[in-house]
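Whiteboard transcription, Tuesday session. T.W. wrote the C-alpha cells on the left side:
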C-alpha cells in the first residue's frame, strides 16, 4: 500500500485529466465537484458516528465481563462470611460486599444508558448511510450525463472515473474533505513543491515544511499562501 500523499497525488493527476475532458460541458464539472464535496462531508459524519458507536460497543463488551466478575467476587465474599472468626471480620466483609454491590449497580445503570445511546446512534447511522446513498446516486447521474455528452471520449471518461473511485477508496475521508473543499476554490487542489515554491501560487514554502512534507507522507501539509495541499517534488505516480 502506498502513502496517503501518493494517492492524493494520483487523484490530482486523474482530476486534472477529467477537468480537461469536462471543460466544454458548461457548469457540469462545477456541479460534480460540489456533489463530491457533499458526499465526502456526509461520509466523514457517518465515520464519526461509527467511531463513537464502536467505542460504546467496546464499553458494553467490557462492562458485561466486569459485571460477571463483580458478581463472582460478591459470591465468594458471601461464602467467606460463614467462616469468620469475629465480628470485626464479619463487618469488614459486609462493607466490602456493600461496596461491590454499589459498584455493580452503578455499572449496570451506565450499561443501560449506553445501550439506549447505542440504539439511537444506530438509527442515526442508518439515516446517514441513506443520505450517502442519495448523494452517491446524484453523483453517478452527473457522471452519466457527462458520459452522454462526451460521445466518442466516453471510454476514457469511464476509465478515469473508475480509476478515480479506486483511488478515493485509498484516501482517508478527512483528507478527501480537505481536497474537495480546496478544489472548489482552485482547479488543482494538490501541487508539487518546485524549486522550494508552491507550484500553484509560486510563493516560497518554508524549509521546515518542505522537510515535513518529505518525511510524513501520510499527513497533509498546506501552502500557507493559497491553501493547496503540497506534494513532495520527487513524487511519481503510476501511469494509467
Ligand atoms: Zn500556494
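and on the right, the sequence the group agreed on:
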Amino acid at each position: 500500500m502506498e502513502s496517503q500523499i501518493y494517492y492524493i497525488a494520483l487523484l490530482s493527476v486523474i482530476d486534472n485529466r477529467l477537468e480537461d475532458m469536462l471543460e466544454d460541458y458548461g457548469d457540469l464539472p462545477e456541479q460534480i465537484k460540489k456533489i463530491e464535496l457533499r458526499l465526502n462531508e456526509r461520509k466523514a459524519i457517518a465515520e464519526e458516528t461509527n467511531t463513537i458507536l464502536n467505542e460504546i460497543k467496546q464499553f458494553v463488551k467490557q462492562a458485561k465481563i466486569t459485571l460477571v466478575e463483580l458478581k463472582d467476587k460478591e459470591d465468594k465474599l458471601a461464602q467467606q462470611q460463614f467462616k469468620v472468626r469475629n465480628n470485626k471480620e464479619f463487618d469488614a466483609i459486609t462493607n466490602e460486599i456493600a461496596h461491590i454491590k454499589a459498584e455493580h449497580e452503578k455499572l449496570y445503570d451506565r450499561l443501560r444508558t449506553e445501550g439506549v445511546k447505542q440504539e439511537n446512534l444506530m438509527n442515526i447511522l442508518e439515516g446517514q448511510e441513506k443520505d450517502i446513498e442519495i448523494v452517491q446516486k446524484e453523483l453517478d447521474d452527473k457522471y452519466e450525463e457527462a458520459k452522454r455528452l462526451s460521445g466518442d471520449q466516453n471510454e476514457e471518461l469511464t476509465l478515469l472515473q473508475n480509476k478515480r473511485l479506486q483511488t478515493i477508496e485509498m484516501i482517508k475521508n478527512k483528507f478527501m474533505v480537505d481536497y474537495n473543499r480546496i478544489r472548489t476554490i482552485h482547479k488543482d487542489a494538490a501541487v508539487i513543491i518546485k524549486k522550494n515554491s508552491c507550484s500553484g501560487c509560486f510563493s516560497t514554502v518554508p524549509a521546515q515544511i518542505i522537510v515535513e512534507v518529505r518525511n510524513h507522507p501520510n499527513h497533509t501539509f498546506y501552502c500557507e499562501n493559497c491553501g493547496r495541499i503540497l506534494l513532495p517534488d520527487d513524487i511519481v505516480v503510476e501511469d494509467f
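Someone added at the bottom: The chain has one domain: 4-231.
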